[in-house]
Automatic annotation (TrEMBL):
It is a multi-pass membrane protein. It is found in: Cell membrane. The keyword Membrane applies. It comes from Planococcus dechangensis. Belongs to the multi antimicrobial extrusion (MATE) (TC 2.A.66.1) family. MepA subfamily. Keywords: Antibiotic resistance, Cell membrane, Membrane, Transmembrane, Transmembrane helix, Transport. InterPro entries: MATE_fam, MATE_MepA-like, MATE_MepA_subfamily, MdtK-like. PANTHER family: SPORULATION PROTEIN YKVU. This is Multidrug export protein MepA.
Length: 442
């Protein structure tokens, strides 16, 4: 079993391995993206722009749970794959056991501690008198059952790293299709409102987790729970490796909260609704780039453990080429079909569409640079260059973004707010090019 997994990654060409992971990862993420858009379209059409804006305000809580799962999940999976590449299977299983137990315990505790303060949390996230009821309904279920997401997401990462990218894809497809179906039933038939949308997402994630659990019955399974004592050094290593992934998701929360507050200030509820439309679309593009990162992470981590630098370089070249091609395609789509994209989310007032349509066209400039930044962050993380990986994630959506978001709207209004991310991504790409040139010089 172990030999079969090791044999494939050791003997298959880099191109073959890259495609074997890229295709299911991209298909799975594409379905997940369709799921997010369908979610937004159904909420927008059934409950209107204020409800859509309310969910957009509450989304950072969901993002935080995903961030926790990525922090420990990617950290654990990266270490797991490196140990498998070094043929240290027993140690890899200890890493798996540490990761899953830690994720469950930490995220359950966070949800239970935050639940009594959900009203204060809603206003802190940017709710106003109009959006508060929708934000509160969404938070109610998310705080109580957010641990379902974290377990499902982390298990998906580990299953993919254990040589089953197709099963990870099937799980994502199952989750996505089930979520769309349940959303329709809860919103349009049973009229459960925003809480129904949250329930649909949670139930779908739970079923997706059950699909992933079939991996444990495979003969090729290396993910086995073993008895372990809490190893502080190992947990610290997992947390250090996974920190850039955690920061990337936290950055998404900062991105959402900061933009919500800026648009609330510049254009009121119409601004928040316009940004909610953009944020749904952005989530799609982000998942596509995440799919590319997900494809190279198991490979680069494994090759790093096996000390095969030639294969790491080849994987990186393939990933950057793919990211640039995808980013260019996304940019063109944004310029040509902005009006159709915005209109798909419901029959919104002109005040919302007049903000959303040019917003999509401006914001989509970011995709020319974002894919390369994502790939390089994953590469640095998987090869132990954690400082550079952390810089990329911190700069993209926190440090550079917040500076630009505080300056550009002062001079350019709403246009400046839309341009903050494209300029931020471009600046980060320049720092990567500078670092690579300096590193090669050494």
């Amino acid at each position: 079993m172990t030999q079969q997994t090791v044999h494939r990654l050791d003997t298959d060409s880099v191109s073959k391995s890259f495609i074997r992971y890229l295709v299911p990862s991209t298909i799975g993420m594409l379905l997940m993206a369709v799921n997010i858009v369908a979610d937004g379209i159904m909420v927008g059409n059934r409950l209107g722009p204020i409800a859509l804006g309310g969910i957009g305000i509450a989304v950072p809580v969901y993002t935080l749970f995903v961030a926790m799962s990525l922090w420990i999940g990617i950290g654990g999976a990266t270490r797991f794959s490196a140990l498998m590449g070094a043929k240290r299977v027993d140690e890899a299983r200890v890493v798996f056991s540490h990761a899953i137990v830690s994720i469950f315990a930490v995220t359950l505790l966070i949800g239970l501690l935050a639940f009594p303060f959900r009203t204060e949390l809603a206003y802190l996230l940017g709710a106003n008198a109009e959006t508060y009821p929708y934000v509160a309904d969404y938070l109610y279920l998310m705080l109580l059952f957010g641990f379902v997401f974290t377990l499902e997401n982390a298990l998906s990462i580990l299953v993919r790293n254990d040589g089953s990218p197709n099963l990870a894809m099937v799980s994502l497809v199952t989750t996505s299709l089930l979520n769309i179906m349940l959303n329709y039933i809860f919103l349009f038939i049973l009229d459960f409102g925003v809480m129904g949308a949250a329930a649909a997402t949670l139930i779908a994630a739970f079923i997706g987790m059950l699909v992933l659990c079939t991996h444990f019955f495979k003969k090729t399974n290396n993910l086995r729970f073993v008895r372990f004592r809490v190893n502080r050094k190992l947990m610290l290593l997992i947390l250090v490796i996974g920190f850039p992934s955690f920061l990337a998701e936290v950055g998404m929360s900062v991105f959402t909260i900061a933009h919500n507050n800026v648009f609330e200030r510049l254009a009121g509820t119409s601004g928040v609704s316009a940004f909610a439309i953009l944020n749904y679309v952005h989530s799609v593009m982000l998942l596509m780039f995440l799919g590319m990162g997900s494809a190279i992470q198991p490979l680069v981590s494994y090759y790093s453990g096996a000390k095969d630098h030639a294969k790491i370089k080849k994987t990186l070249q393939l990933a950057i080429g793919t990211a640039i091609a995808a980013g260019t395609l996304f940019f063109v789509i944004g310029q040509l079909f902005a009006e159709s994209i915005a209109g798909a989310f419901g029959d919104f007032p002109d005040s919302v569409l007049d903000l959303a349509v040019p917003g999509i066209q401006l914001f989509f400039i970011a995709y020319l640079f974002m894919g390369t930044n994502f790939v390089m962050m994953t590469y640095y993380q998987s090869t132990g260059k954690i400082r550079m990986a952390t810089w990329i994630t911190a700069a993209r959506e926190i440090v550079v973004l917040l500076i630009l978001l505080s300056i550009l709207p002062v001079f350019f209004g709403v246009t400046g707010a839309w341009l903050a991310i494209p300029i931020s991504e471009f600046i980060v790409l320049l720092t990567i090019l500078y670092y690579q040139r300096r590193w090669k010089g050494k």
